[in-house]
Amino acid sequence: MLRGGRLGKTMDEMASKYTSSMQTDVRIFKPVVHINMAHSIMLAERRIISPEDGAAILRALYELHERGVEALELKPELEDIHMAIEKFIVGIVGEEIGGKLHTAKSRNDQVATAIRMTLRKDLLELEAALLELVNNLLTVAEEHVDTIMPGYTHMQIAQPTTFAHYLVAYASAFLRDAERISQAFDQTNYCPMGACALAGTGFSIDRVRVARLLGFKRVMENTMDAVGARDFALQAISALAILMINLSRLAEELVIWSSAEFDMVEMPDEFTATSSIMPQKKNPVVAEIARAKAARLSGDLVGALSVMKALPQSYSLDLQELTPLLWDAVDQTLDSVKVMSRLVGAIKPKPDMMRKRAQRGFTTATELADLLVRKAGIAFREAHAAVGRMVAKAIEEGKSPDALVLDDLQAACREILGKEVQLTEDEFRSALDLDKCIEARGTIGGPSPRSVREQIKQLRRAAKNREKLRKARARAIEKAEKKLLKEVRRRLH
After folding, report:
1. Vertex 424: Cα angle to 419 and 428 (nearest 5)
2. Which of 140, 204, 294, 435 gives the lowest tally of CB atoms within 10 Å of its CB?
3. Are 129 and 338 in contact (CB under 8 A)?
4. CB within 8 A of 418, min separation 6: which ones?
5. Residue 192 has pLDDT above 50, yes or no
6. pTM, rounded to two decimals
């Protein structure tokens, strides 16, 4: 369709397939049809084309909308979905009328708009799935505010915490991910239509009218930036890559906690697989794949950044190679979040084993050092050294935390401080008590049941507010689509 003027020869078949985006363009079919509808309405309203020609084009577009992408001839030589749609319109209304469809627009502003329209919906769907994951984490957390487990630093047992506190940590991270997705939506919700190839048009178009018909919040003003910018896509992929890194960390820990060496959680059977040769195996395959998908997202982000890093303004076909990376990032993240959300909701913690692991690791040592500061009036560094010495000796002698007595601490104090400390046996035993240690950590964000319940309450509220905003945005887009189609139908009668 485009080679009858400047270019004479038919494009080489291999080159045509190599440069065509037809395969991935199917995803933006509906937005492109809607863009052409809105643009045609505007052209007729501005008398750039006659109302009769506008109605004829709209009738053909509406037929295509009803029949779907299957009605198109998706040949690589047509280059992309935009030309396939134009060919369909011309086939119905003829070249004289159908050729007017492309007046005052370019594929450059059209594809940028279609990608944004598609991505808007994808981001809202992703946010919904992510908020469901947050709520599933919080639901499980509510059941385990008293389930004590070891907390780790450097993958070494550090301090006692609770399974609820652990889950709330991830719920907090995923809620921040939801906020990043929401911010990406804001940057995506700009309309490039009317920018044409890069310098706008001499026709008296109404860019605001088209933007409103398509449900955009605002027009992207600078016409060169409008067609050449893909930072909105980079921001979206970046937000999704960060989300997947957080999801991978959760998946990694569930793999570890479910191993025989840790044995703190039981993976639900429906999210595991067995071995083809070893009948006893229960492999955490869903969590493993989630880990791998995070690496794939990192690749999508690096690929997209690399496409853009040395690209001059404004439009080059290089941008076509960024779009599949965007859709891959969206699809892989959505699938991962959905399946991990279901896995988390069915996870089976083992409270007895968690507590046993916490007891074995001298996790209350910090609480004992803090007690020495409060009761004995010594500096924290002195307390740290004395308690550390007590633990070292206990390990050397094969003594468990439960077997420790006040004399063990006093011996360490004499060695480190040159004196004993004023402390009772009850105070000593209380400091080593896991439940009392957890209860004492009631500061903002701490693991005490009271503190965790407050965190859950606040996160529930934040997730609810974010869901309200997400639904409002989805309704606005849906309303704009219905209004556009209603306007089209009105002009057909």
Report:
1. 90
2. 204
3. yes
4. none
5. yes
6. 0.94
Residue type, 209: R
The first and second tokens of residue 99, run together, are 């050729």
Instruction: Return the pLDDT at 75.
Output: 84
Catalytic residues: 154, 275
Joined together, the tokens standing for residue 478 give 């849906």
Reduced to 3 states (helix: H, G, I; strand: E, B; else coil), residue 130 is helix
CB atoms under 10 Å from CB of 88, counted, come to: 20
What is the distance between the alpha carbons of residues 116 and 40, in angstroms, rounded to a whole number?
20
What residue type is 455 in one-letter code? Q
Residue 422 to residue 453: CA distance in whole angstroms: 36
Half-sphere exposure at residue 229, Cβ-oriented, CA atoms within 13 angstroms: 18
User: Rounded to the nearest 10 degrees, how much is the dihedral formed by the CA atoms of 11, 14, 20, 22?
Assistant: 110
Q: Is the pLDDT of residue 264 over 50?
A: yes
Domains and CATH numbers, the chain: 13-103 (1.10.275.10), 108-197+221-357+455-479 (1.20.200.10), 365-432 (1.10.40.30)
CB 370 within 8 A of CB 383: yes
CA–CA separation, 127 vs 148, rounded Å? 31
The residue count of the chain comes to: 493
SS3 149: strand
Predicted pLDDT of residue 1: 54
**Where residue 228 falls among pLDDT bands split at 50, 70, 90?**
very high
175/204 Cα distance (integer angstroms): 45
Please write the tens of the pLDDT for every residue from 109-129. Answer: 999 999 999 999 999 999 999
Pairwise CA distance, residues 231 & 199, whole Å: 20
Task: Identify the band that residue 6 occupies on the pLDDT scale cut at 50, 70 and 90.
Answer: low
What the block records as the tokens of 190 is 């700009």
DSSP conformation letters of 385-398: HHHHHHHHHHHHTT
Average pLDDT on 3-12 reads 64
State the DSSP string of 220-275.
Answer: ---HHHHHH--HHHHHHHHHHHHHHHHHHHHHHHHHHHTSTTT--EE--GGG-B--
What Å distances lie between residue 405 and 159, 201, 382, 416, 446, CA to CA?
20, 85, 19, 17, 28
